[in-house]
Inverse folding.
């Protein structure tokens, strides 16, 4: 599995070629405290796209430091694309990753061929118990985040796996991610996004509820919304096949435009 240097940071990513050499490139950007594995197998191996799933700096197998704000993560992503030689890509982001994707579309519009916004919102205020707890009571707070993040239908092993992976991330990095989310607000700027956009949300999402997804769909011109019944905030882990087929159908529609 490949690593690439982005400045001084050694960044891990997986690459899946896609069935057709003309397949569009798609970047998968995980959320706060996450890594590439939070994107279920079917999404990382979509046959309709060349898929790059990275671990952001300070997360998963990438070294380097987490960023203090979403704009810095978006600028990092543009440099990651430079390092890969990717001029333009569809940017798919979950939760904080969705905030990074929207910020890419606002700061680097010429690099973004489309957006897939999964379990996210135009403003991501964070519960004070999460913000404070990631610094002062790490293990208990991660357990609490996971209680909110998965629907009651999610298999216990899936929840435990996600929890174990979050516990391996440095508390300062996770705290920095949530602080970056808390300061994120593009409610007034969605009209400036002009690329094809798919929004996906679990019907049981408690951290970024369907109301947030509906707001995105109303304010991003031409955006399409898919609600996945019975899934929580971690919809792309809980229902990877449904998320993958929603993305594949959107890519097929976008190709005909
Ligand atoms: N899209 C649409 N509406 C949004 C929104 C979004 N992204 N973010 C907030 N709003 C709405 C809220 O629903 C609320 O509407 P209401 O007045 O009709 O109830 C209003 O805007 C103000 O909400 P908010 O800015 O979030 O402030 P708050 O002081 O009411 O609540 C929290 C703060 C932290 C309690 C709340 O944001 C929350 O429960 N967040 C979800 C939990 C969390 O921590 N998620 C992590 C995200 S990474």
């Amino acid at each position: 599995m490949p690593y690439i240097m982005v400045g001084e940071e050694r960044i891990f990513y997986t690459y899946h070629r896609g069935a057709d050499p003309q397949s569009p490139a798609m970047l998968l950007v995980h959320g706060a405290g996450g890594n590439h594995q939070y994107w279920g197998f079917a999404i990382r191996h979509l046959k309709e796209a060349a898929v790059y799933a990275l671990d952001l700096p300070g997360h998963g197998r990438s070294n380097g430091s987490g960023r203090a704000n979403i704009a810095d993560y978006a600028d990092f992503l543009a440099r990651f694309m430079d390092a890969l030689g990717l001029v333009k890509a569809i940017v798919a982001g979950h939760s904080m990753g969705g905030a990074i994707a929207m910020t890419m579309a606002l700061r680097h519009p010429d690099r973004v061929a489309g957006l897939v916004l999964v379990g996210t919102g135009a403003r991501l205020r964070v519960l004070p118990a999460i913000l404070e707890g990631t610094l002062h009571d790490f293990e208990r707070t991660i357990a609490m985040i996971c209680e909110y993040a998965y629907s009651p239908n999610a298999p216990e092993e899936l929840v435990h796996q996600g929890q174990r992976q979050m516990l391996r991330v440095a508390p300062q990095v996770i705290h920095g991610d949530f602080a970056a989310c808390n300061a994120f607000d593009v409610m007034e700027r969605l009209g400036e996004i002009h690329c094809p956009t798919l929004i996906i949300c679990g019907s049981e999402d408690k951290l970024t509820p369907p109301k947030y997804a509906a707001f995105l769909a109303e304010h991003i011109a031409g955006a399409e919304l898919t609600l996945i019944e019975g899934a929580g905030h971690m919809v792309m882990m809980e229902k990877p096949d449904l998320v993958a087929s929603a993305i594949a159908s959107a890519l097929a529609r976008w190709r005909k435009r």
